[in-house]
Specification:
Elements lengths: L1 H36 L6 E2 L3 E3 L20 E3 L21 E3 L21 E3 L21 E3 L21 E3 L10 H4 L7 E3 L5 E2 L2 H15 L3 E2 L4 E3 L17 H9 L4 H4 L7 H5 L6 H70 L3 H15 L1
Parallel strand pairs: 2-3, 3-4, 4-5, 5-6, 6-7, 7-8, 8-10, 9-11
Antiparallel strand pairs: 1-2
Helix pairs in contact: 7-8
The structure holds 2-acetamido-2-deoxy-beta-D-glucopyranose (3 copies).
Length: about 375
């Protein structure tokens, strides 16, 4: 019986061993299949959208498992602070990516390199203080870019070079004081630009950008607001309402600084002296009246220089004329006194000498030789 039951037992044993093994294999298969075409457990996925918003995520879920049909990836309202360079590889079908309301403070240069179909990127309300100039490389279809409510102090040259398709851009709510025109010139299709809530310094450094912005508006584009924080007399004013003449002195500054070098770096704000001079009465009315004064103040140096030149030349001419007049007067006086003396002597001699005319001729010749 033992011998008989042995194989039965072993057979039954083997069958009971094989079914958990099968389950195990199946389980592993399911586990492996899930990341291949599944939705990360923290996200809600539909056919074309993966919504992972507001889950308190501190790291990205396994995104490589997203269905390849995913067009929209929503990651807002999380606690993401760091993204690996490869975070969005294999997601080349994405058209919309929302990373707003996170704590991102630094984005690696190649982060979006494979998102050639991405048209809408939001980085709103993060902690970005700088953007790598190559950050947007590969984003050939971008139409909408939102980097508002960050801590950006500059828009690097080159960042927007490949963004000819961009139509909507927000830089509002950052720490921008100036922008370089050259950084924005590639945006030939821009329609909507938000620049509000930045500490703009309306000095020579903004002059070229102001020109570009006016061209954008002329083309039919929209710019929300660009209110000056500095200089004091322009505080609260939109730079578009500041007459372009107020920036004319910038050209003179550039000329004085040997062309160009001063234009980017050292432009002092318009009307520095005007602000230093009257720190007196209440502000609102004064700012309105000061602006034109200001223009005159900034123009003064050149006109003063010209005036001084005119005065000097006039002085020299006057001096020469005066000296000539004095010389002529002195000559006249000497001539007159000589003539008077001669006449007197003539009158003295007349009664003594009978024939006055005979003597007059040689005397007159003497005077003419003196002359
Ligand atoms: C991207 O997909 C390829 C194959 O399609 C795979 O080898 C690679 O590991 C994936 N990369 C990432 C970051 O998931
Ligand atoms: C990108 O968009 C084009 C046009 O809509 C489409 O033909 C292409 O398949 C898309 N690429 C990916 C990776 O989804
Ligand atoms: C910005 O994000 C923080 C945290 O992510 C959130 O508490 C805050 O309400 C957001 N602010 C705005 C204006 O969206």
């Amino acid at each position: 019986m033992r011998l008989f039951t042995g194989p039965v037992l072993s057979r039954s044993g083997s069958s009971t061993q094989s079914s958990p093994a099968l389950l195990c294999v199946l389980y592993l298969l399911v586990m492996q299949l899930q990341p291949c075409s599944g939705c990360p457990s923290v996200c809600v996925c539909s056919l074309s959208e993966a919504d992972c918003s507001g889950r308190g995520l501190v790291a990205l879920p396994a995104l490589s498992s997203l269905p390849s049909s995913t067009r929209t990836l929503l990651l807002p309202n999380n606690r993401l602070s760091l993204l690996p360079t490869a975070a969005f590889t294999n997601l080349s079908s994405l058209e919309r990516l929302d990373l707003s309301n996170n704590y991102l403070d630094n984005l690696p240069a190649g982060l979006f390199a494979e998102l050639a179909n991405l048209s809408d990127l939001s980085l709103r309300n993060n902690s970005l203080t700088a953007l790598d100039r190559d950050l947007l490389q590969g984003l050939g279809s971008l139409r909408r870019l939102d980097v508002s409510l960050n801590g950006l102090a500059a828009v690097p040259l080159g960042l927007l070079d490949q963004q000819q398709g961009l139509t909507w851009l927000s830089l509002a709510g950052n720490r921008l004081q100036a922008l370089e025109r050259a950084a924005f010139e590639p945006l030939v299709n821009l329609q909507h630009l938000e620049l509000g809530s930045n500490p703009w310094e309306c000095d020579c450094n903004l002059r070229d950008f102001k020109h570009w912005m006016e061209w954008l508006i002329y083309r039919g584009g929209y710019v929300d607001a660009m209110e000056c924080t500095l200089p004091k007399d322009l505080r609260g004013r939109d730079i578009r309402s500041v007459p372009v003449e107020m920036f004319n002195y910038c050209l003179q500054l550039e000329d004085e600084n040997g062309g160009g070098s001063g234009g980017t770096k050292g432009g002092s704000p318009p009307c520095v002296r005007a602000t230093a001079a009257p720190p007196s009465e209440s502000t609102v009315v004064r700012t309105e009246t000061e602006a034109p004064d200001c223009v005159r103040q900034r123009y003064r140096p050149v006109s003063v220089r010209r005036a001084i030149g005119t005065v000097v030349i006039a002085g020299v001419v006057c001096g020469i004329v005066c000296i000539m007049m004095v010389a002529a007067a002195a000559y006249g006086c000497i001539y007159a006194s000589l003539m008077a003396k001669y006449q007197r002597e003539l009158k003295k001699r007349q009664p003594l000498m009978g024939d006055a005319e005979a003597e007059a001729d040689p005397e007159e010749k003497q005077i003419s030789s003196v002359a």
